[in-house]
Write a structure and sequence with these properties.
Elements (H helix, E strand, L loop, with lengths): L1 E4 L2 E5 L11 E3 L4 E4 L1 E7 L6 E9 L3 E3 L4 E5 L2 E5 L6 E6 L6 E7 L2 E6 L4 E5 L6 E6 L4 E7 L2 E8 L2 E7 L6 E6 L8 E4 L4 E5 L6 E5 L6
Parallel strand pairs: 1-18
Antiparallel strand pairs: 2-21, 3-4, 4-5, 5-6, 7-8, 8-9, 9-10, 11-12, 12-13, 13-14, 15-16, 16-17, 17-18, 19-20, 20-21
Length: 213
């Protein structure tokens, strides 16, 4: 397993009216994050808030290229980001104990926080398609270039780890500074991760390890 210190390259926030950051996603232009009673979108270049949607948003957030998916109170909502309208809902596999959320190849991947699991589910029905185990509390989940990464946060220790999507084996770990938690996780599809900072009210950009070409 590769192990390195996480390199925090930028911090965003705190944001007006935001006490805590949960799920984080990226639509190719704006970073979205859940803050309990609303979804917020900010420009990662300027850090300026661009949009908000009034919707229950207390855990993971994902984007499929057209719609947002948001965990709230034991369900996953499919949301039109242009209108803010909730189009459909499906049951979340953890029944309220869910954390991170990611979209990959037509399915959703859902972290189960204290259950220390990640479920792959059908986005139409919520049916569980596969499950992998973690040895730490699971927070955010993201896919990038065929790699599955998830955040952990337990006590004062937090990291971002790359895992085998079939076995759950930890392949690589980026260790956050003590007291710096990861509550949500999303890749920008390139060189960085966006990480929710929980009750700090911050979103942090962390450098993604370079890959050999």
């Amino acid at each position: 397993m590769k192990r390195a210190a996480a390199e925090i390259i930028r911090e965003y926030g705190p944001f007006p009216g935001v006490d805590s950051v949960a799920g984080v996603s990226y639509d190719g232009q704006n970073v979205w994050f859940a803050s309990g009673r609303q979804l917020n979108a900010f420009d990662p270049e300027s850090g300026k808030t661009e949009h908000t949607i009034d919707v229950a948003a207390n855990a993971g957030t994902a984007f499929d290229g057209q719609h947002l998916f948001q965990i709230a109170d034991g369900c996953i909502q499919k949301i039109d980001p242009k209108t803010g309208r909730v189009l459909t809902t499906i049951p979340a596999p953890g029944g309220g104990a869910d954390s991170g959320l990611a979209w990959s190849d037509g399915t959703l991947w859902v972290g189960q926080h204290r259950g220390r699991k990640i479920h792959q589910i059908d986005p139409q029905t919520g049916a569980i398609l596969s499950t992998i185990e973690s040895n730490r509390f699971v927070t955010g989940v993201t896919w990038v270039d065929g790699e599955l990464w998830h955040g952990t946060w337990e006590g004062e220790e937090s990291d971002i780890r790359r895992v085998d999507p079939h076995s759950g084996e930890v392949l690589e770990k980026l260790e956050m500074p003590p007291g710096t938690g990861v509550s949500g996780l999303e890749s920008d599809g390139d060189s960085q991760f966006f990480c929710g900072g929980g009750n700090s009210g911050m979103v942090r950009a962390v450098r993604r390890p370079k890959r050999d070409s």
